[in-house]
Please model this.
Amino acid sequence: MQKLSLDAQAREHLERAAAASSGRSSETVYGGHEHVLRQTVLALTAGTSLAEHESPGEATLLVLAGRVRLTSGDTSWDGMTGDLIIIPPARHSLHAIEDAAVLLTVAKLR
Model:
């Protein structure tokens, strides 16, 4: 069994994102390409975005810190610390309204 602190992961990646020219930092904390389930901590500095992309499978976004906006088509959802956003099975983008860290959980479609 393995245990990790999502709070500590969020703090660490927010620091890394602030130091990175891209304004983001991420790390897969469970799973990977060889697994169905993958969980990734992702940090974005305020104003940073992940461009529109396809959904790789069923996915959720748990906001660990800060505020984000997930947009798909003409619809958007704002999330803040503690919110769980269900990612639609369509093209979408993510924007950090303020410095933010999220836990992205994806179950790949086979």
Q: What stands out?
A: The two ends are 27 Å apart (CA to CA). The chain has a mean pLDDT of 93.
